[in-house]
Amino acid sequence: MKIKIENKSILDVKADAIVVNLFEGVRHPSGVTGIVDKTYEDVISNFVIKQENFEGKYGEIYMLPLVKENKKIFVVGLGKQENFDLIKIRNLNAKLIRKINACKNIKKVVSILHGAGIMGLCPFACAQMITEGVISGLYDFDKYKSDKKEVNIKEFIIAELDESKFKKAKKGLEQGLIIAQSVNDARDLINESSQYLYPETLADYAVKNSGVKTTVYNKTQIKKMGMNAFLAVGQGSVHEPKLIHMEYIPERKAKRKIAIVGKGITFDSGGLDLKPPSSMLTMRDDMSGAAAVITTMKAISQLKPDVEVHAIVAACENMPSGSSYKPGDVIIAKTGRTIEIDNTDAEGRVTLADALAYAEELGVDEIIDIATLTGACMVALGTVASGIMGNDDNRIKEFIETAKQAGEKFWQLPMDEEYGDSLKSDIADTKNTGGRMGGASTAGIFLSKFVKKTPWIHIDIAGTAFVDKANAEGIKNATGVGVKSLIKYIAG
User: Fold this and answer.
1) What mean pLDDT comes out for the span 100-123?
2) Is 63 helix (H, G, I), strand (E, B) or coil?
3) Burial 172-192 (b: 16+ CB within 10 A, else e)
4) Three-state DSSP class for 435?
5) How confident is the model at residue 369 (pLDDT cuts 50, 70, 90)?
6) Residues assigned a catalytic role
7) Neighbours of 64 (CB within 10 A)
8) Of the candidates 40, 24, 405, which has an alpha carbon nearest to the alpha carbon of residue 32?
9) Residue 104: pLDDT band with limits 50, 70, 90
């Protein structure tokens, strides 16, 4: 499906469906909706509102057939004006496009630029949100299904007659396309079966699709770097670990230098501390952090911010075998710090320990890691918000506020020193886990020991990366969480 914007009145665009909107409680449409209403003999005000009692509640959609014109008008409810925002635009369009696509005879749709009229929202942002919503709403991972979901709509057009708004909206649409495709790419990676996506194939994907210079290090090279913690986790698998380093260098002088580190466990069985069978069913999602940073780099390569960005993924499988690392093992990490393995299912933090150390050696101004790290974070925050913590409160607050603009929720968790008491070991510098209580914060404390002085943010997406019920965008299973926020934080 093609998405574009035209500098025309909505009535001058030939289409099978027209999309207009109404705020809750409006009885007499104005603006573009009012123009459409008058053109079609007050059919919205006299029929949809008065006879059909359309109230304009948020998410309410009314389909009105125009038999003579052989087209349909879709009236969408924006809810109460005081509660309306940009994120609602995206989620509403995701819902709308699925409803329109179900009408198999609609090939071309023209829509109002939601939010840019009476609300006075930025046309750039409005067009971006519409675009993200439309693309997200049509997402479906049907690669292995015989019955594929068909996209009946061939063209989706945003109509904006005001030339100044049109120019801004056009750029917003272009950015929306980049972001939405990156998010969908992340979803594809996470939804992919670990039968086909393992360290080698993930690395190959990054080389071919990240859009930036990508270096992949093999087991021998990783060993020479002293990344024994990372190697230990992967030593039980037949698939060799891969260290993936993607780098974007701007054409102009970089304003700052950032490293983003994604957890890349392509399948997590728990190792010798084996997970229950039901807990393993979705463990292909344990590389959601890796998917987020790889696809973020693709967007960065297209948006071209004046920021130097390095993306690091320590990719491996955590599998049980005769060569697996064991409870009680003592491992020397890249920093020289020793780790007693208390539980082989707390493997993500062990790989991240070396990945963070590698990132810090790059001399970056800040490090952000993103990982499906702890069940404790899932218990604490559910599927609504991701956990966030680190060693720089100001940067954490900035990231949370930036993420809100991107439509993602993060909640800061504590990292008081007392959480680290349970990590004390009798035979090593630290244990890799400290029990169930305060597990998300304990994991954060563990990771902090491997970042010496660089400002660092840790994001735990264990509860938000993979959901069993459709979220606000109508997405089930892999959500691609973190991609929008990382792009917004880095590129603006």
Assistant:
1) 95
2) strand
3) bbbbbbbbbbbbbbbbbbbbb
4) coil
5) very high
6) 275, 349
7) 18
8) 40
9) confident
pLDDT at 250 over 90: yes
pLDDT tens by residue, 432-484: 998 789 999 999 999 999 999 999 999 999 999 999 999 999 999 999 999 99
Q: How many CB atoms lie within 10 A of CB 213?
A: 13
Residue-range domain boundaries for the chain: 2-160, 187-491
DSSP secondary structure letter of residue 384: T
Phi, psi of 31 (to 5 degrees): 60, -145
CA dihedral for 30, 36, 39, 45, sign (positive or negative): negative
Taking residues 386-401, what's their average pLDDT? 98
So what CATH class is 2-160?
A: alpha beta
Residue 275 CA: distances (Å) to CA of 6, 370, 431:
54, 22, 20
pTM recorded for the entire structure: 0.96
Q: Among 3.30.420.40, 3.20.20.70, 3.40.630.10, 3.40.50.2300, what is the CATH number of 187-491? A: 3.40.630.10
User: Hey, which residues does 64 pair with through a beta bridge?
Assistant: 73
159-473-25 Cα angle (round to 5) = 65
Structure tokens that stand for 206 in this block? 């990054």
User: What are the backbone angles phi and psi of residue 158, rounded to the nearest 5°?
Assistant: -95, 130
Closest CA to 285 of 427, 188, 413: 188
- From CA 420, how far away is CA 211, in angstroms rounded? 39
Residue 144, burial from CB neighbour count under 10 angstroms (0-12, 13-18, 19+): exposed
CA separation, residue 308 to residues 202, 246, 301, 361, 413 (Å): 23, 11, 11, 15, 28
Topology alike, domains 2-160 and 187-491: no
Helix (H, G, I), strand (E, B) or coil at 338: strand
Shortest CA distance to 123 belongs to which of 173, 169, 59? Answer: 169
Range list of β-strands (E), 106-183: 108-111, 155-159
Residue with tokens 């705020």: 23
pLDDT at position 243 over 90:
yes
Place of tokens 């993060």: 410
Three-state SS at 359? helix
Nearest to 396 by CA among 357, 356, 368: 368
Q: Give the position of tokens 């708004």.
A: 165
DSSP label at residue 396: H
Cα torsion through 124, 478, 233, 378, rounded to 10 = 90
Q: Per-residue b/e over 411-422, b at no fewer than 16 CB within 10 Å? A: ebbebeeebbeb
What are 135-162's pLDDT values in tens digits? 999 999 999 999 988 999 999 999 999 9
Neighbours of 287 (CB within 10 A): 33
